[in-house]
Every structure is written in structure tokens, then in C-alpha cells.
Design a protein that fits this description.
Length: 364
Amino acid sequence: MSDVDHMRAALALARRGLGETAPNPSVGCVIVREGRVLGRGRTAPGGRPHAETIALAMAGPDARGATAYVTLEPCAHVGKTPPCTEALIEAGIARVVVAVRDPDKRVNGQGIARLRDAGIEVTEDICRAEASILNAGFFSVIQQGRPLVRLKLASTLDGRIATKSGESQWISGPEARRATHAMRGRHDALMVGVGTVLADNPELTCRLAGFRQRGMIRIIVDSHLRTPLTGNLVRSAGQTPLWLLHRDGADPARMAALKSAGVRLFELPASSTGIDLKAGLEHLAKSGITRLMVEGGATLAAALLREHLVDRLAWFHAPAIMGGDGYPAAQAFGVANLASMPRFQPVSATRYGQDYLTTFRKVA
């Protein structure tokens, strides 16, 4: 097998950890000698131990003289665990193949330099594009100071998410809903607006048995703390984390009641449309969120699009047409001309039952 084959095996391992390793990236490592795989590992839930440590433990003494394939440059700084570069050196690894460099200023080339200084051969940029996509959330926090934001929408062909009376369950079919839960499971947190909470009383969980070990963080954009204290989300806050983004000047009694129920509150500056979402995302990044999935509703979708804060778009279309009296997927957000529209480039299209999922990436 080639370097590309082994690196893709390491990338496959890393993908399995998406949504469970924040604030650390999900990294995969495969250790090979003479074509034989000696050890495999991915970043453990919670971010530790690191992939290299797990793979080296599996390989044991046989790691000496072997090649390590790592999806992200091994760390070179001392944190809560020793640097992975030192573990690779001490194990006697002869060659390290790296998919992409770590942009964290504590690493960024220093891990590779340390390995080379120790006499280890280092090959870079194998499957770089795939690794960059995998690490997009981690990179976004470092480079933009906020999580990667994926907006998921489910609508009719003409972009409607509910009838005039508010009926919305279910526009998409069971296969699409199952795919949505799998998508949730690959993110650190799930965000909705308070309108969705009031209309649907959701649970906002990944309901696929065994899909992930850690509970999802649920986040509500709720400027005036209207989230019901007796709803599903607040009642489960003691078991599954619930965070609320609200504007300053909120009712102190309401804040106290939510906190006593186990809800974490983020007070943010007010804006003309509610709260400063960019500041909110920066707070989420500082709290360890790297990959954020947003499921609406239409007001929150419009606010994020207005501020150009949507990095990825996942749109399920059901083969039906509702007409103009239905609710749109995004409310009006001030597009006055074609040049001001947020634009996306298509990435993939997949059929789930009778529905189609099209994914997009923001045009830089």
C-alpha cells in the first residue's frame, strides 16, 4: 500500500472522532512497518489521550524503525500530556508522514522541526486537502476565532419549511431525519433559535444508538430568555449541557431560575436583530466549541447569513411544493442586489429516501 492509502486509513479513523474531541482536533494515526499495520489510534473522547499515544501503545516495541502516518502535525508543546513528538522519538519511529501542518502558534512547523532534528524523516502534505476539510473546525477557531458553522435546512423544493398555520413535521422523510441525526453526531454542539424551541419543544439530541459517547451541547439563541423552564431542554439540562445566548439586561430572576436548572448563560451585546452573533460565536470558541451545527429556524438562519457567518450549508429538499404562503427557510435579511448575496459552491448531492441532501461550502 502507498503513503496515500495509509493516510486515508488514518483519516478514516479521525473522522470517527468528529464531535467528541473538542476543543482538540480529531486526529488519526497509523503505524506501519514493511506493509504491516502495527498500531492504530484516534484522539479519544474529550481530547486525550492523543492518537499517536494510542497507536504507539498498540504497536509496542515493534514501533522502532516503523513509519507513523498522522493526519495533523504532531504537537510539540507541553500541555496536559507530554508532546506527541517526544513520544514518537522515544519509540524509535524512523519516518513520520504528515497530512497537514497545525496552524496553532505553539506547533505550526515546530513539531516537524523537532522530529527532523531528532533524525526522523518527515514527509508532508499527503492527502492535505482531505485533512484540511477534516480539521476545518479546529482551524476555524485558530484562524477566525470562532467555530465552523454548518447551517442545516430541510424544505420543499421552493424553499418552504412550514405551512401558513405553522405545520412543519415532517417535510422530510425518515431517511433524511436519520441522516440529520448522524450529522448532529459529528458536531460539538447544536444551535437553534428560541422560536424553534417555542414551536416544537425539541430535545436536540443525536438519537442514534451508540453513535457517540458524549452528550451533545445544545445551544439556544434566546435574546430575552423566553425558553420555557418546563420544556424538554431545560428539564434535561442537568444531564445534557444546555447553553443560552442572550442579550444584556435580561431579567435577573429568570437568569437565576435557568442557572439553578443547570443552564449555562452567555450574556452578549444587543444588536438591531437581537444579539451580536459574531461575539456569541467567539464566546463559544473560547468555551471549546469547534464545530457548530445550526438547525434554524428562519430568523436565526437569516441572521447568520446576513453576517456571513455560515461556512457550510446542508440543505435537504423534499419533492414537494408549498407555495408562497408557506414560511421560507430564511427570513428577509436585507439583500438589495445580487452582489450582496452570500454565495456557496456545491460540494456533494446525496439521495435519502425521496429527499435529496445538497451540501455547499462558502465561497471565500
